Amino acid sequence: MTTPSLRTLRGALRDRAEPAVRIQQARVLRPPDDDELLGVRVPAVRQLARAHRELAREDVDALLHSRVHEERLAGVLVLAERMRTARGAERRSLVDFYLARTRCVDNWDLVDASAHLVLGPWLVDGPEDPPAVEDVLDGLAASSWLWDRRIAVVATLALVRAGRFEPTFHLVRVLCRDPEPLIHKALGWMLREIGRRDAPLLVAFLDQHVTDLPRVTVRYATERLPAEDRARFVRARQR
Q1: Taking the CB of residue 150, how many other CB atoms lie within 10 A of it?
Q2: Distinct helix (H) and strand (E) counts, the chain
Q3: Which Pfam families match (predicted)?
Q4: Which of 42, 78, 82, 217 is the most exposed place for a label (fewest CB within 10 A)?
Q5: Any idea what DSSP says for residue 65?
Q6: Is the domain defined by 91-239 classed in CATH 1.25.10.90?
Q7: How confident is the prediction for the chain on average, in pLDDT?
């Protein structure tokens, strides 16, 4: 059953559709054949998600299971909005809801808009048992579903911002042989974020592991390092 709130949100998304944006989305996102793109700009979807942050859980579930790409994006963004103020049992409930539906989070933009904002806060201060953080990340990283693995990597952005770098380094070591370029890029992105906060630590990590890492990971990771360090690591990876 479609609720009035869900009908309102769906109608608002369609009202904001732009054909030119849809063409660009198809090129950048390369969605599966059964995906429907409306052509709604991401800031507009974010605005609607904020306005509908109190959407019923069953309506969020309907959005996540929709084959309309912007509806799934709105669904994960509503969860992210809810997570901002959630605490305690509600926070864990949102995480469980998200983790049970990662098959709906099936493109890089959906992962990157949600993993660090829905799963991330719980990783930072939710688990009572610290090994639980690594258990959750390792479980996602071991998945055959590409997007579970990217969720694991991108979720650590919240930990990096909290000054906790080891979970990211751990995943880099675990996933450095992953066959998917989208994982290689995500690893490099997270390493770059660590380097923004502690460049010497990133340099030390790369000194030890650079020859094990994909080339694109090294390129992304070293983007903000001094030119001489960047050139040294790129050369080392090309040997």
Answers
A1: 29
A2: 15, 0
A3: DNA_alkylation (PF08713)
A4: 42
A5: T
A6: yes
A7: 94
